[in-house]
Records
---
Amino acid sequence: MSVTPDDEGFMAAAIRLSRRHLGRTATNPSVGCVIVKDGVVVGQAVTALGGRPHAEPQALAEAGDLARGATAYVTLEPCSHHGKTPPCAEALIACGVARVVISVTDPDPRVSGRGISMLREAGIAVDAGVLEAEGRRSLAAYLTRQTKNRPYVTLKLAVSADGMIGRQGEGQVAITGPEARAEVQTLRAETDAILVGIGTAISDDPLLTVRTPGLEAQSPIRIVLDPLLSLPLTSKLVATARDVPVILVASEEISPLGSEEGSPPSVLPGISPARGEIGKRRDPNFQGSGSPFATEDVGQGATSQPISPPVGEMPGRAEGGASSVDATDADARRVALEAAGVEIVYCNPYHPEVLLPALATRGISSLLIEGGAKTAKLFLEAGLLDRIQLYQAPVVIGEGGIESPVQATDIPSGFTHMGTQLFGVDRLDEYEREN
Ligand SMILES: NC(=O)c1ccc[n+]([C@@H]2O[C@H](COP(=O)([O-])OP(=O)(O)OC[C@H]3O[C@@H](n4cnc5c(N)ncnc54)[C@H](OP(=O)(O)O)[C@@H]3O)[C@@H](O)[C@H]2O)c1
């Protein structure tokens, strides 16, 4: 059967639906399903929060008997394997659906093509690849983790009219207005984890949470590249680490194991294996200890110890720039940070090609880099960005400005300009890498 404009219209509705739970179904993708009988929508659903139930059985339940002879529009190939839920392809067959229209084929080796075969073998007409580009965008985090073994990485920067992202030594400088900032909150809520460099963590003292009313529980896991455990204990990140997870990526050189054994451990033993769940805490009032990503013993035995001053507050030591490491000092900071609920993993923070797969192994499918300049440059140079969101504001920073590592005029090759949106007086340009 050939694909009609109506098919595209219903698939567009399914894709819109799927976006509702972006970042809230890990480690499953957020899939949309619309069931149509005689041109009328009789059932529709998105993957439930937490990833189960899948979209198809919910939409079929809503359609009831009307599913018989209907067409199901699904953004991702229906699953064919018995996981924690029965196969969705079986449910579609059992309900007597006559036709299934799919946007994207599932790269998961347990499914890939098998869902479609099961449906066809049961006599159901299947059309795949409908609005595939749009479908792939809505599933980008899931597809990237499946096919590249790393999260989908977005760099977001706010750039002034004179090409700056901040001012040296001044902490947070307001560049964009409230409309743009509200939009960034939405982006955070759709993302599994957010990452900044220690320079930004110290100078800006950011919270990096979602404060949009109703979405507070959707704050991403907060990750700081912090080679020497310089994050001040008085920082907002540490103060809120028991409410929203904070992970510090520290250098192997200061790992307790590395210093004892003479050879630094790799990151992977320091990171717990995937648990099938990522660490967004659904309950904003959550007061438990330790991160859901923690290895079994992280935080345990972390008692109150005398706290040494954070590096950023120590005399004679540049923020994030110390060249030698005092093992005792690092150990005291480690103990104090862990006692505050911060998780520490040991891995060269400046090797994203090692860090990203480790994050993917832990169920993180989407990562938002929010600066600063050096951290953005690190990911740009490593070629590990999938999307760049550049907010350009009319504000002028002038003297003492920190230059943006990327401008609209020097977007790296391989990126396509996807569009421009206006938020108040600010302009957002979005670029995506061609896969
Ligand atoms: N407008 C925006 O969108 C935005 C967003 C976030 C932050 N900011 C601004 O950015 C500024 C901070 O930027 P930043 O570049 O100083 O800090 P950063 O990227 O947040 O942190 C980088 C820190 O890591 C260290 N580092 C060492 N080797 C590195 C490597 N290979 N790659 C990356 N980092 C490495 C740096 O130490 P060394 O200094 O010793 O090299 C530096 O202290 C702040 O003023 C903040 O307000 C702006």
---
Amino acid sequence: MPSSASSSPGDTAAAPPQEPALQAHFDRTIARDQRVEPRDWMPEGYRRTLIRQIAQHAHSEIIGMQPEGAWITRAPSLRRKAILFAKVQDEAGHGLYLYSAAETLGADRDDLTDRLIEGRQKYSSIFNYPTPTFADVGVIGWFVDGAAICNQVPLCRSSYGPYARAMVRVCKEESFHQRQGYELLRTMMAGTQAQRDMVQDAVDRWWWPSLMMFGPPDDDSPNSAQSMAWRIKRHSNDELRQKFVDMTVPQAEKLGVTLPDPELKWNEERGHHDFGTPDFSELMRVIKGDGPCNAERMARRRTAHEEGAWVREAAAAHAAKQARRTAERARGEEKEHAA
Ligand SMILES: [Fe+2]
Ligand SMILES: [Fe+2]
């Protein structure tokens, strides 16, 4: 990357004469499938789109800790508790990588948190559904983490370097999440009839909301084309949804559950499964705040933020003290050197 690609914050606002050259360099980077890095010049729209997408992704990871986190204290065995603990903790880690990736674009983490808490930025609609039974933990792992894998594996090749690199580790962990969910469901399916019914009930409740995780249909998704042109996104919503369905159907057969869609069948000609249309008006309703658990999730997040204020203050005070000590030591060494 030539050093001319870096810019001071004022550059873009003032539209300086060198911008066409910078734009051309950016376009070449994208066309050659190379990565855009934090210090490179980038169009404001690209930066804004990425901040919005990465922030939404980060918020989803953090809010996503809640539906399953509620089962940690009630897990049926020590083994299940340890697995669930590790999984929920991973999601916190994903949130933190992603907030850091957003910071490389000039976003401020406190500001992003405020936007979430004030409802100005969204998180994935899926986390607004309740988890009344332990089978929900299994189905979330299988469906929700499975859908996350479909969405996130292509993001490992996203054009923005820090986002793409964060996704590599995130995807490895999502793969563990999906497996632990599926393994939990297999155990329950080998159990009593009541356990099998519990699994089927959870499958019935989560199937359609999971399909909605891929967003609205392509012809109703205005920002997708630009995101694909910038190679932030690699596949359309409908392509990813199809991939998820094709991947999940044989797993459901193996597990012995029925996916609640009468239109679901293999289409020999297309080489894909045909399936019904999710109720996208429900998706819009839930995104706008009217899902079964939106209020509860936000209230919990707000309380956690308020209760964590002392930790942030203590961490800041500790960092300031360390910085002071490092500076004092450096001054001491300088004096010694001079003497
Ligand atoms: Fe995650
Ligand atoms: Fe996950």
---
Amino acid sequence: MFLFAMGLLLVILQPSTGQFPRVCANTQSLLRKECCPPWDGDGTPCGERSNRGTCQRILLSQAPLGPQFPFSGVDDREDWPSVFYNRTCRCRGNFMGFNCGECKFGFSGQNCTERRLRTRRNIFQLTISEKDKFLAYLNLAKNIPSKNYVIATGTYAQMNNGSNPMFRNINVYDLFVWMHYYASRDTLLGGSNVWRDIDFAHEAPGFLPWHRAFLLLWEREKRRGTSPEIQPLLTESEDYNNVSYQSHF
Ligand SMILES: *[C@@H]1O[C@H](CO)[C@@H](O)[C@H](O)[C@H]1NC(C)=O
Ligand SMILES: *[C@@H]1O[C@H](CO)[C@@H](O)[C@H](O)[C@H]1NC(C)=O
Ligand SMILES: *[C@@H]1O[C@H](CO)[C@@H](O)[C@H](O)[C@H]1NC(C)=O
Ligand SMILES: *[C@@H]1O[C@H](CO)[C@@H](O)[C@H](O)[C@H]1NC(C)=O
């Protein structure tokens, strides 16, 4: 489902992306601990009828925790996303996403079988108007609410284990600021106590793969979030896929 979260294993194993899929941010999903939304294409969970994927028990890493995290059962991010959901979509072939409605990175087409190459350009080689356009897109992302994702504004315990969902909308840009924060923030131990000696996104082997996946998701979600609004503003919408931000981040 979504990754936002922790280490590299989870990023790679979890078949989808983002913070909380909006369709699963409700009492019913939380109490059932299931996030297997229907795929629009056929209306079945995980696009099952179209052979895209199935709703399955999540797979968790059996690897021991590192010494930086001497706790168990205190942080919602442990064994992500099992605190919130223990059944999610597992997608087949080149499908991915929380409902198997998307293609793996690098693929496109109805059945996600066509290779799709996108080129990131060096920002120093963009023309002034290309740079302006790029910044305009960033600005738009900051002003458009994410359609598919919401963020959690409380812990699972604060949500009374699901019976009191605490989520809110977020714009496409801030969604990713939030995911980055959520993955790397301190562990909250209750009250004002925090455990600072942990950073799931940076101080471990997950650093590079986590950020690579993060950027791929960012590019994708921003394209999706902005494209309908952008079409009238820009004729060469495809250029957007070919703009580099490498030196901005
Ligand atoms: C998954 O979560 C549900 C709801 O809390 C629970 O009833 C079920 O036992 C859990 N399944 C496993 C295998 O932990
Ligand atoms: C996609 O797969 C379906 C079902 O296997 C098939 O009917 C359809 O022709 C395929 N479409 C393309 C564009 O390959
Ligand atoms: C991206 O831009 C470069 C340089 O302008 C161009 O050569 C390349 O074909 C473009 N790639 C795509 C996928 O549009
Ligand atoms: C939430 O679940 C935990 C573990 O199952 C339990 O100890 C706790 O009492 C539950 N809290 C509420 C508010 O239901």
